[in-house]
Each structure stands twice: as C-alpha cells, then as structure tokens.
Write a structure and sequence with these properties.
Helix content is 26%, strand content 24%. The protein contains 19 helices and 33 strands. Strands 9-11-10-12-13-18-17-16-14-15 form a ten-stranded mixed beta sheet, with helices on both faces. A six-stranded mixed beta sheet has the order 1-7-5-3-2-8. Strands 32-31-28-29-30-33 form a six-stranded antiparallel beta sheet, sandwiched between helices. Strand 19, helix 9 (397-411) and strand 20 (415-419) form a beta-alpha-beta unit.
C-alpha cells in the first residue's frame, strides 16, 4: 500500500487472495505455532528464515488431556496469508502428518514463495508495518480499495471464546482468564504445570455482574490481536478488579499488558513495525538480568504515562520500549512478551510461578541484584595460552579465538603475554591493526606445563586464559592447577574455573553432574585397563564406541562389534590416554550442537545451533554441518536449548562452551554427548555463521563483565545479550584435496 511495484512470487497455498497488514517474524522454527497464534489475526506474515516447510505439519487430530490440539495454539490458522523466501516441497520429520502447502490449502490460506523476504523486511523496518494484498493470479491493475486495515476491526472479538469454559475442574486454586485471543499453551501451563482451575471467559464478560457466578482467586489477562483501546468492556472489568479489597492478584501477557495499563490510567501507542519473533532481549529492572523472550505485538505501553503507583517491570534491551508493568504495593503485574512461549524460549516461565504463588497467598522470594557488578577485579597483565602445533583438534580455528581474545584484552588496557609456537598465525603476527592488535610479548615456545610456569615466573601475570587454545591449552591449565603451581604463583584462571572444566572432561563426574539435574549422557563407562573396558562393553552391549579421554579431535576412537575388536581398539587408545571411554552406540541418531554463552551474573544465551547432515557416528570434522538446524520443530529446538542452559548453569561455566546432543530421529528422546568448556572448532564456525564474536565476548565475560553491558559488535548500540536470528543458512562441507596425494 506504499505505492511501490507489486512483489511477485509463486503460489504454494490456497488459490485465493487475502488482504491484511504485512508484518515479519524472525523465528527460525515454529511456523505451526505462529500460524495458529490468534495474535496474528488479519496479518500477512513474512517469515524471515529462508527455508520453510522442512518438518511439515503435525496431526491436528492429536489432542491433549483437555481436548486441545497438542501441537497448535488454536483450532485454526489466523494469519491472512504467508510469504516465504524458499519453500521445501519435501518435508522430513517423525511427527509430520502433512505438508505446509496442504495445510494452507485445507484451511483456504494463500501462500507465496520465491520472494526476497530480506528486502521486504528491510522495507517494513524502514517504512513501518504496511497494508498488503496477497493476490493469486492477479489482474493487470491493482486498485487502492484492494487494501484493508485489520486494526480497524475488532480482532479480539473475532478470536475470543463465545462461552465460558472451565479447564482443570478438579483443581482448587481458581483463576479467571479473559480470552482476547489466548494461546492454548497458556491453558496447559496453568492447568498442567500449576494445577489451577482455569475458567476462560469471553473478552466482554462483565466481572462485576459475574452472571455465571464464578468463584475466583486471581485474574489473568491473555494475549490477543489488535488495538487494546477497542476492548472497553475488558478494561471496565479490570478496573473493577483493581479496586477490590483485599486485592486479588492480576497477571497479564502481551495484549493483557496493554489492557492492564489502560485500566490503570496509562496510554498505549502503535509501534512502527512491532516486535515479532523469539529472540527479543528484555531486562528485569529489579535485578538487571536479561532474558530472551518470544513476542508478537504491534502496540506498546507508554511508560511515561504510568500513574505514580505503577512502575516499569521489564524493558526491551534493544529499543528500550516497555515490556512490563507492576503495581508498587499490590499483586498486579503484566508483561509484553510471552512467558509460555510456543513458539520460543521458556526463560521467563517463572512469572507463572510468581502469579500463582500470589493467588495461593504464598510468600514470594525477595528478588535482588547479585551485586557482582560492584565486585569486578582489575587485571594488568594476562597470559594467553595458544593452541600448540597445528594438527587435528588444534588447527587454525584457535588462531581465530586467540586473535579475538587479544583484541578484547587490549581494549581493556591489559598487557597481553602470548605463548604459541606457531609463527604463521594472525595472533603471533607483529603487524598491528585496529581489528587484529598484537600481543605485547610473544613466546614461540611449546605448550608444556613447565614452559608455561617458566613464563609465569618471569612475567608475573595476574591471570591466565586457557580456554582459547583448544584441548592442548586446557590440559596444561588443568595440570598446573591440580599441581597447585598456579595458586602458588597467585595467578587466577579467568573464565570457567578448573573444577568445572574437569567436570566436563571426566565422564564419571560429568555423568554424576547431569544426574543431579535429571539429565543423562548415553550409557558410558570409563576404563583404565582392558579388563575394565571389556566389563563396561558387556554391560552396555555391542556394538560400542571406544574413545580416549582428554584426546584431541577424537584421537584413538572407533567402533567395536565384539571383544576382539575392543581389545585392539583399546590398546591403541591407551597409547594416547590413560583413560578410555566405552559409550553406547548411537549411530543413526541426529547429532546437534548448541553454542552457549553465560556470564557471572547468570545471563545465559544460545548463540547458534548446528545440525550434522550425517547421522551420529560420522566425526563432526568429516561431516557436513548446517547452521541453524533444519529438521527440528519448535518443541525440539527449545527443549534442547532449555537443557543446554540448565546444564551450563549447573556446571558453572563462565564464557563460551558448546554442548552436543544425540536426538532420536523417531521421537523427542535425546541424550547429551558432551560439553566442551572452552572455545571449540565449532565456535569459529558459529561465529562466522552468525556474526557473533564468541571468543571476543567470552574474553570480556572472563574479566567479570556481563552480557547486558557489552555492545553488539555489529550494531554498536544494542546489547550482546541476544540470540542471532538468521535469515540465511550456513553450510560447512569438508574438502579433501586428493590432488595433493
């Protein structure tokens, strides 16, 4: 509707046309959830992720215990039309029931592919949300009356329930939920997770008159589409609830945040293009913690208009818009994002705990800042341990991480001492530039414990970084720490501490740590001799995987089908390590990785996830790797992400690490393969794939900085506490140049 030339593409949906507001969503997974989200009512949705339809659409006939579709957020598709860059005509997933194209056709929704969605998104970001008309088989001319603004319709009325419904009848805690377009996962969260009796009422239910005579202890205000000012009936009921004494708890989400603000006397306004996606960083103004949140809204609360007894609770770390409000002395609060997710991360699901706790009159824990920002140490000189001679497991990827580390340290005015025997690398180069500053002093010496200690005695550094040089640097750091020499010299290990590193390297400790939080690795036993290896193999059952502990790039690993093969493999593995690992054979399972970053204030994000094209059993270095993953649904993607954050926090990792999974290709069953508590070869790929400088940020975090205050190196203005949402795919393919042999 801006007068520009029509955008053409190819149809893959229903043979019909649709008018609506053109908006974009940056989510990389979760199209079944997005399309059935009532908040998208009347909108033509542009998905920025370039390849849509890979995992098909689940069966709409599968219901949960409450008769709600298990995999969807409502009983119908609410978008007016769908626009994508590339459509995958062949889908592959165990839960797929039909293709996305067939689903659109069955629901009479048009879809178009072959569109430059990046250019279209940039237009929306520049001009703002636009009116559009998705026309199948268009005529020669397009008239102005072909456009229609859905925000002039009463969208909440269109999507709200028409009758009172009760879920969780057997539960005692009673909450009324105003349905202005409520997602089904909210119902599941209240009833399943928190054992609430949830009475869902239409948007215009008169709470004061209460014609259905509902007994209630708390009030919930749902998400929904459109302009909040078009719901005066809902606002009137909220105002009644706000005046009750003693006060009854109120909690709002998305549109519910705007409705609560209007009822309190504040104002709302329409955003230029809205916040829609799964990676919006929001700061909790009570603690300074930053959370990654899913969002879908075109209107926002004007913080400046809040009455004196109301305060801002959350703030968007990017555009600084309002993300939540709270009453200063009554149990009333709301948020602009979606704590229940679906799609997206569940990082803020604790807000349901807070609300239900208020309803049950449970004492709420005091929420305070941790004070770590006031206890930062300063460092004058740091020793950086490089990766040793170039070989498998410690190759050029660690030149990248070391170079980024030097850059970050020099920005902080720290003198950098580097030990690295490689003369032909960027980090050992004497040529200085703004992008690759040189270390103050370079020792071209072998990475050995006694050599490192000689340098420490001479240079007397304040700290040492061992997480940027691969397994070689890590092993040296562990040995010097266990011998007590680092402690005697007064040298502090920066970033992840040695006990946490050892917990990831020793399989028995690692298994115990995971068991403490209800997670598990594949069946695995360590062995220090061949007899123990045989005993472990027979416990697991053949075939098994043999791996050397503390090894470089899978050195000494292989599969054994019987005792004889195991003896042969074990003898070779013991030549490189004093401990070997006997693992369950998971060949054929999907292999996935998540790159995770955590700071000392417990802000935790996943920067990138990757999927091996080859199934488990082919070494990552030999396999084709795709970033981001291509065959994970929203549930699988965020299930593994949630586990990654839980594991990293439990281990106490500070900086960057990666976690590897095996995922059953025929279910949601998974197990953890390993955690690398350091920059790995995958980290370099993830940094290049996303543009997020993992080594640079990890170095800053090791100095005590937090993710919120570090700036995004691309935008220079937004925070580094964000998860990149890609509108492209990255492929890493091994290249074997046989001409050299």
């Amino acid at each position: 509707a801006d007068g520009s030339a029509p955008i053409t593409g190819r149809s893959f949906g229903a043979n019909t046309s649709a008018k609506g507001e053109v908006v974009f969503n940056t989510g990389m997974v979760g199209y079944p959830e997005a399309l059935t989200d009532p908040s998208y009512r009347g909108q033509i949705l542009v998905l920025t992720f370039p390849l849509i339809g890979n995992y098909g659409v689940p069966d709409e006939g599968i219901k949960d215990a409450y008769g709600l579709p298990e995999y969807f957020e409502s009983n119908q598709i609410h978008i007016a039309g769908l626009v994508v860059s590339s459509y995958s005509w062949e889908h592959s997933h165990w839960a797929a029931h039909k293709s996305l194209a067939k689903w659109l056709k069955d629901n009479n929704i048009p879809g178009i592919y072959g569109v430059d969605t990046r250019a279209l998104t940039m237009k929306i970001r520049s001009i703002g949300a636009l009116l559009g008309n998705l026309v199948v088989n268009p005529s020669a001319s397009i008239e102005s009356d072909m456009f229609s603004d859905p925000n002039k319709r009463h969208l909440a009325k269109e999507v709200s329930t028409k009758e009172v419904k009760v879920y969780g009848e057997q539960n005692t805690t009673s909450v009324i939920a105003y349905d202005c377009g409520m997602k089904f996962n909210i119902i599941r969260y209240f009833v399943d997770t928190h054992k609430v009796k949830l009475t869902v009422v239409p948007f215009d239910y008169d709470l004061e008159a209460n014609p259905s005579n509902i007994q209630w202890d708390g009030l919930f205000l749902s998400n929904g589409p459109g302009d909040p000012s078009m719901c005066p009936e809902t606002i009137k009921s909220i105002q009644y609830a706000l005046k009750l004494e003693p006060p009854r708890p109120i909690f709002g989400i998305c549109l519910g945040n705007q409705l609560l603000a209007l009822a309190a006397g504040a104002k709302t306004y329409k955003l230029k293009y809205g916040n829609r996606g799964m990676n919006q960083p929001c700061i909790d103004l009570r603690t300074g913690r930053c959370y990654i949140t899913p969002q879908n809204h075109g209107f926002a609360v004007d913080t400046k208009s809040l009455p004196s007894e109301w305060k801002q609770l959350f703030m968007n770390a990017n555009d600084l818009t309002n993300e939540g409000i709270v009453h200063i002395n009554k149990p009333f609060f709301s948020v602009q994002f979606h704590p229940e997710a679906s799609g997206g991360p569940l990082d803020t699901a604790f807000l349901f705990d807070k609300f239900v706790g208020h309803v049950r009159k449970e004492t709420q824990p005091l929420v305070l800042q941790d004070g770590l920002s006031y206890m930062k140490k300063t460092y004058k000189k740091v020793l950086l341990v490089g990766s040793g001679g170039l070989s498998i497991g410690q190759a050029g990827e660690f030149d990248y991480s070391g170079s980024q580390c030097i850059k970050a340290l020099k920005e902080e005015g720290i003198e950098v001492i580097l030990i690295n025997p490689n003369i032909a690398t960027v980090q050992t180069s004497s040529e200085k530039s703004d992008t690759t500053p040189a270390a103050d002093k370079v020792y071209f010496l072998p990475i050995r414990p006694h050599v490192v200690m000689d340098i420490i005695r001479k240079e007397k550094p304040d700290g040492i970084i061992v997480s940027m040089g691969g397994q070689t640097a890590l092993n040296v750091g562990v040995e010097l720490w266990n011998s007590g020499e680092l402690q005697k010299a007064g040298v502090e290990v920066l970033g992840t501490q040695i006990p946490a590193i050892e917990a990831t390297e020793d399989r028995e400790i690692f298994s115990q740590k995971l068991a403490e939080i209800g997670e598990s690795i594949a069946l695995s036993y360590s062995a220090t001799n061949i007899d123990e290896a045989l005993e472990a193999a027979n416990k697991i059952g053949y075939p098994i995987l043999v791996r050397a502990a503390f090894a470089l790039g899978g050195l000494g690993s292989g599969f054994a089908a019987d005792d004889e093969e195991l003896k042969d493999l074990a003898a070779k593995a013991f030549a490189t390590s004093n401990q070997i690992l006997i693992d369950q054979d998971l060949r054929g399972w999907k292999e996935l990785e998540y790159e995770v970053v955590r700071d000392s204030s417990d802000n935790c994000i996943t920067v990138c996830n990757m999927e091996n094209f080859d199934p488990l059993g082919v070494h990552t270095g030999d396999s084709i790797v795709v970033a981001p993953s291509q065959t994970l649904t929203n549930r699988e993607y965020f299930m593994l992400r949630k586990t990654a954050l839980k594991v990293v926090r439990h281990l106490g990792i500070v900086g960057e690490c990666n976690i590897q999974y095996a995922l059953n290709p025929k279910s949601e069953q998974y197990c953890i393969i390993e955690v690398n508590a350091r920059l790995s070869r995958s980290s370099a790929l993830a940094s290049k794939a996303t543009g997020y400088p993992l080594a640079y940020v990890a170095t800053k975090l090791s100095l005590g900085k937090d993710l919120v205050t570090i700036r995004n190196s691309v935008t220079k203005t937004t925070t580094a506490c964000f998860e990149p949402s890609l509108d492209y795919c990255v492929l890493k393919m091994p290249r074997w140049d046989l001409k050299k042999f």
